[in-house]
Amino acid sequence: MPQVARTDVEGALTAFPAVTEPANGRRAAAVAITLVERDGRQGIWITRRVPTLRAHAGQWALPGGRVDDGEDAQAAALRELHEELGVELGRDRVLGRLDDYVTRSGYVIAPVVVWAGAEPPVRPNPAEVARLVFLPLADLDVEPRFVRIPESERPVIQLPVLDTLLHAPTGAVLHQFREVVLHGRPTRVGGYEQPVFAWR
């Protein structure tokens, strides 16, 4: 896959009006889709959550967490990137955002796209991160699977990467990133369901 330029990513996100969802009693959260370059290849960071966390333990996730009082989604995503991976980037590295994803567990997740450039040193927080993976964009450029379940009219999205299947919200967010940023296709994710095991 050819390299993607920062200006092209920013342009694709600017041309894509992200859908924001009201909290309506849910908790606001943000995740960072961080573009990094390693050994001449571009990719993103994805983490495996430690098995001792109270929520979604052991799952693959993007660096992220709750939006604190006084923060916006950009600030929260950058703070979580620093807290989880030890990487501190300024707001000038934020390129844009994708659609909010409303989870069954009561969160409204805002995906923020961040430009890191050449991969900086990382210090994963052992209290939160069991494993950090560099996922090349070429490996992310895959077609998702959609599965029907009796509990919902919406299809469950499954993204076949990392020798496993990523479900929503992470799978949905990364699929939209692939569609909007890598292919310029205005794809929405509000119609994609999570598997039942992630509803709590």
Report on the structure:
- With 200 residues, this protein is α+β, with helices and mostly antiparallel strands.
- It has one domain (6-198): Nucleoside Triphosphate Pyrophosphohydrolase (Alpha-Beta Complex), CATH 3.90.79.10.
- 20% of the residues lie in helices and 32% in strands.
- It contains 4 helices and 11 strands, in the order αββββαββββαβββα.
- It has helices at residues 6-14, 73-85, 137-140, 170-183, and strands at 27-38, 41-49, 60-61, 64-66, 94-97, 101-102, 107-118, 129-136, 145-147, 156-161, 164-167.
- The strands form 2 sheets. Strands 1, 2, 3, 4, 5, 6, 7 and 8 form an 8-stranded mixed sheet that branches. Strands 9-10-11 form a 3-stranded antiparallel sheet, with helices on one face.
- The longest helix is centred in the last third of the chain and has 14 residues, at 170-183.
- It is globular and about 45 Å long.
- It starts with 5 loop residues before the first helix and ends in a 17-residue tail after the last helix.
- The mean pLDDT is 94.
Summarize the SSE layout with pairings.
Layout: H1 6-14, E1 27-38, E2 41-49, E3 60-61, E4 64-66, H2 73-85, E5 94-97, E6 101-102, E7 107-118, E8 129-136, H3 137-140, E9 145-147, E10 156-161, E11 164-167, H4 170-183
